[in-house]
Specification:
Layout: H1 3-6, H2 19-22, H3 35-43, H4 52-55, H5 63-71, H6 75-83, H7 89-95, H8 117-130, E1 146-150, H9 154-164, E2 169-173, H10 182-185, H11 194-207, E3 210-212, H12 223-228, E4 233-236, E5 242-243, E6 256-258, H13 259-266, E7 286-290, H14 294-305, E8 310-314, H15 326-334, E9 338-340, E10 343-350, E11 356-369, E12 375-379, E13 385-388, E14 391-394, E15 398-399, H16 403-406, E16 433-435, H17 438-441, H18 446-465
Parallel strand pairs: 1-2, 1-4, 2-3, 4-16, 6-14, 7-8, 7-14, 8-9
Antiparallel strand pairs: 5-15, 10-11, 11-12, 11-13
């Protein structure tokens, strides 16, 4: 097929549940490609000699290679190609912002729609799993070197996957009772089914990774104690699990959640599957979510599925500045979420029983750009108004988990409490200790955390070989 013929093939839209149906369940929204759709989409790839899409991928996937295999019908080969550099393809194919990374720089994006790289990644990984054809590759002979990984989010899982293949002995220490970090507590079932996360974790276990759950490093053991137990290197990937609040009057009223608590109750503790799981969560009828990122979208869409009649996003900037993925905003709009842009709360109002009943807000306008490059929101004097609400979910970002830095001597952090680490190697100020993901950058994306894990794994291996 010539390039001219390829340009005439439309981008294949992934089939999905309709909005009215999906707000009544927690099943995954997109159904995924059929083999025929995947091959058609893969045919659109021009197989550029200088593949700029690879440079847009934080985990360095050979994108033209795996896409070509799909076009040829070699789906298992495509999955194996993905796993050469990405330990979590079924996850990344679902939740990574490809539109801002590999697909953004696709040559087709200049005049046409880019190749749906994320959808194809998801298809190949799903096909391999659903066909029961996941093969465990041979790992290198044992090196005798032990590595401890603190936290089992995308950064930690990536480090584990890369280092176990090189023959090192890997142990993951996870504070929660399930491995996966933000993948299991922060991302809802309708966007990332937990069976997918568990399958990726199980794959690492079959490779030889040891996973210890309900194991809080900084409490049960410190980093220093891990070294005394014989670990030669330690990677810290404990994430950004400390929720931020606005510190405005009435914030301690009942019915006001952090997004962390709200999503953890629903996702990890399965409050959505009541009464099968008897996890308490307040199913409000008028739910406001503060924020404009993916976590805010996850929270407001969860509220709808828990029975909210009215679900609102209140965001202090305009739609153009929202950091959430375009698909997530689009899905929320389809599902009936009402957006209040250029708005911020100034006070919560409660009843005599201590429950939130209303929220006083003020309208904003955009001023000069701030440090993020986005225009700073400025309050409009006298524009206050009140919204009736019975639940508020605060999704305005998280700070880094402070426990490990507070219990580890010689580990430098910045003014926000993030561990200071070399962006190219993950090395910290403490010899033998690496860090990556949200504990270093603050709240970011799954793929950026995985990319940081890949760089750290490469440097840890170099360090271990020199011992």
């Amino acid at each position: 097929m010539t390039n001219a013929q390829k340009l005439k093939i439309p981008r294949q839209k992934m089939p999905e549940q309709g909005p009215k149906e999906r707000i009544k369940n927690f099943k995954e929204v997109p159904f995924g490609y059929t083999p025929e759709m995947a091959m058609t989409e893969a045919e659109r790839c021009l197989q550029c000699k200088k593949a700029v899409c690879v440079g847009g991928c934080p985990v360095e996937i050979d994108i033209p290679a795996f896409v070509r295999m799909i076009a040829e019908g070699d789906f298992i080969g495509a999955a194996k190609e993905l796993k050469k550099t990405n330990s979590l393809p079924a996850i990344c194919g679902r939740v990574c912002p490809q539109e801002d990374q590999c697909e953004k720089v696709c040559v087709l994006a200049k005049k046409y729609q880019p190749v749906a790289i994320g959808n194809l990644e998801r298809f190949a990984a799903d096909y391999e799993r659903e066909q029961g054809k996941i093969e465990i590759p041979e790992v290198a002979p044992p090196t005798g070197k032990k590595v401890a990984i603190v936290g089992s989010g995308p950064a930690g899982l990536t480090v584990a996957g890369d280092l176990i293949k090189l023959g090192h002995q890997i142990t993951i220490f996870e504070a929660l009772h399930k491995a996966g970090g933000v993948l299991v507590y922060g991302i809802p079932e309708f966007r990332l089914p937990k069976t997918i996360v568990q399958a990726e974790v199980d794959y690492l276990i079959k490779l030889g990774v040891e996973v210890k759950t309900s194991y809080v490093i900084g409490k049960l053991h410190t980093i220093d104690e891990l070294f005394r137990q014989g670990y030669h290197a330690i990677f810290i990937g404990t994430g950004a699990g400390l929720p931020n609040f606005m510190n405005i009057p009435g914030e301690n009223l009942n019915g006001i959640y952090s997004a962390n608590e709200y999503l953890t109750r629903s996702n990890l503790m399965k409050a959505y599957d009541f009464p099968e799981y008897d996890t308490p969560i307040f199913s409000g009828k008028s739910v406001v979510v503060l924020g404009g990122g993916n976590t805010a979208m996850d929270s407001v869409r969860t509220a709808l599925r828990l029975g909210a009649t009215n679900a609102y996003i209140v965001y202090r900037r305009s739609k153009a500045e929202m950091p959430a993925r375009i698909d997530e905003i689009h899905h929320a709009e389809e599902e009936g979420v009402c957006f209040h842009f250029l708005t911020t709360p100034v006070k919560y109002i409660g009843n005599d029983d201590g429950w939130v009943t209303a929220m006083e807000c003020i309208k904003m306008k955009l001023g000069e750009p701030d440090a993020s490059g986005r225009r700073r929101p400025v309050p409009i004097e006298g524009s206050n108004f009140t919204m009736e609400v019975d639940t508020v979910v605060v999704a305005i970002g998280n700070s880094s988990n402070p426990l490990v830095p507070q219990t580890t001597s010689g580990l430098e952090v910045n003014k926000w409490g993030n561990i200071i680490a070399d962006p190219e190697t993950g090395q910290t100020s403490r010899k033998g200790v690496w860090a990556g993901g949200d504990i270093v950058t603050g709240g970011a994306t799954v793929i950026l955390a995985a990319g940081a894990g890949k760089k750290a794994a490469r440097d840890i291996d170099k360090h271990l070989k020199a011992l």
